[in-house]
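Translate sequence into structure tokens.
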Amino acid sequence: MSNNRIGVLIVDDSALVRKTLAEILTSDPEIEVIDTAADPYVAAKKMRLRAPDVITLDIEMPRMDGLTFLEHLMRQHPLPVVICSSLAGEGSTAALRALELGAVEVVAKPRVGTKAFLEESRIRICDAVKAAARVPRGRLVAVRPPKVAPKLTADAVLPAGSPQPVLETTDKVVAVGASTGGTEALRILIEALPRTAPGMVVVQHMPEGFTAAFAKRLDATAQVSVAEAKNNDPVLRGHVLIAPGNRHLLLKRSGARYFVELRDGPLVCRHRPSVDVLFRSVARAAGPNAIGVIMTGMGDDGARGLAEMKAAGALLTIAQDEATSVVFGMPQEAIKRGAVDRVLPLDGIAGAVLAACRDTP
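Result follows.
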């Protein structure tokens, strides 16, 4: 990093997008846009003169598409890459492929909108670049944590309160939160679950338009059923519900029945959906019938919520270990708060969840 700032190369065929992204990124004092390129061929030439710390990359470009460039880059000269692309329709499938090829994060291109919308885009894009900068070429290299602007807590969506008494049901609910590196971690976790696994609710930090394709891809490879959550969907054994991008996901209960509620609202811990919002709602609705899992990701979203789950008597709280986390930020913050019962490698989480459920009535 030059002058302790993250050097970014913007690769996009649209001059307007390059200009907008440059303005967004340079508004953050920790980020420096070192250059822009209209396509991967121009980008390759500029990288020979000055290697960036992070690349923002469009998918649909002339001469060479972003996926082909990403594949070559990761094979020959790995660098942290943030995909910044339109995610409607086929774009979301392409973004999933980009993550499989080694991209660190996926964000939606900024669009003209209200001042609040543009500010949220700025937060998401800058945070994605900062998260990517912490991912090394081979394994992660620890760098100084980025400065984080003041952020809202789960109070902004779900005010703090006492958990509801859980007398009507003994059904277990597993709540999972993840961010940077989470798409692959979730795949490994969910594919390890049998059809009889307890119902699971998941927040993965991802943009709107991406979660439906992500859930569909997991559904095709897992034994459990995986779907993007819809308002009032029941939480059932053998089913996984993933929070849709740009909506908060909350667990609710009516008698013996668990279901989910989707809410709008402000960014919480700089995210929507927020893990803290999900975990707080699970603490309140499920109490001792819940298991909480916090996985790879930058920042501290979910740390407070997991502590609330533990205080509500959660059956088990788990943090993914540092060795298998792409970024150890979220699990580490939960551990620091005393919210975690067990720290486990990624391939040990599913077994621990299932064992905890078997060991209780």
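Note: Residues 163-358 form a domain with the Rossmann fold fold (CATH 3.40.50.180).
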